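Hypothesis: this fold can be encoded by more than one sequence.
Test: take the structure tokens below, design a sequence, compare later.
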């Protein structure tokens, strides 16, 4: 059910105190964001360290349990709003950012859901989000704070986390996906993340502008079986044109 490459990635994360991710490790799409914004600006570095440890330990232990039982995921049933089981993290939240509507979801997850619906459902909008069925989600940094938090101590922790995670992304598991979406804006440039070397792809060297800060870059594997699309963070200000353009590029790599 789960590939040896994924098992090795989980073992590496356990040995190195790293967060693994959420969603379906056997899905078709890998999404890598900046970091998960679990903690607000007012929190201290001590609280960040504590939260990071809690998230890592919970995530890795859950994946170890899933691997030990060879749990077969069922994405068509109802699941509680919880991130404890990473297979179903935040699944079935209402497909709206309006939290008053049955517990709506984040704007980032709305973008992921739109991509999922265009890639796999011919654009049909679901009442509840279900992108986890085909998406595996992880982050360049596993410090759970908002990127906009301009604090020197937090920035040092972020840099350290990104450096620690670079060898993880070079592992074979992250090359098993035919579609990789790096939704991290300027992080590759700012933190010297070599997308070409890490994911064994080649950049076309011509950014595609969709307008109003919406853009993407295309990268392809040598055998042309994998695509990596580097774009902005898929949160506020994302245009539907950008989502459609990314989906149209990615569709070509679905078998």
């Amino acid at each position: 059910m789960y590939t040896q490459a994924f098992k090795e990635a989980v073992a590496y994360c356990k040995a190195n105190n790293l967060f693994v991710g959420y969603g379906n490790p056997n899905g078709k799409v890998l999404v890598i964001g900046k970091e998960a914004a679990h903690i607000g600006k007012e929190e201290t570095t001590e609280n960040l360290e504590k939260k990071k440890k809690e998230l890592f330990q919970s995530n890795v232990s859950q994946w170890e349990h899933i691997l030990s039982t060879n749990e077969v995921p069922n994405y068509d049933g109802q699941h509680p709003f919880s991130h404890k089981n990473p297979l179903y993290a935040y699944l079935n939240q209402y497909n709206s950012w309006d939290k008053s509507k049955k517990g709506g979801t984040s704007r980032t997850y709305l973008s992921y859901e739109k991509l999922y619906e265009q890639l796999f459902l011919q654009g049909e909008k679901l009442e509840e989000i279900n992108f986890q069925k085909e998406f595996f989600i992880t982050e360049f940094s596993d410090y759970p704070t908002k990127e906009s938090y301009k604090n020197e101590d937090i920035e040092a922790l972020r840099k350290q986390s990104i450096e620690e995670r670079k060898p993880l992304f070079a592992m074979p598991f992250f090359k098993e996906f035919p579609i990789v979406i790096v939704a991290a804006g300027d992080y590759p440039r700012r933190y010297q993340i070599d997308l070409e070397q890490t994911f064994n792809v080649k950049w076309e060297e011509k950014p595609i502008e969709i307008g109003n800060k919406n853009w993407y870059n295309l990268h392809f594997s040598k055998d042309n079986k994998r695509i990596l699309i580097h774009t902005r963070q898929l949160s506020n200000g994302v245009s539907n044109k950008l989502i459609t353009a990314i989906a149209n590029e990615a569709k070509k790599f679905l078998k």
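Helices lie at 4-16, 45-69, 107-120, 152-169, 187-190, 195-199, 240-251. DSSP finds seven helices and eight strands in the chain.
Hypothesis status: open.
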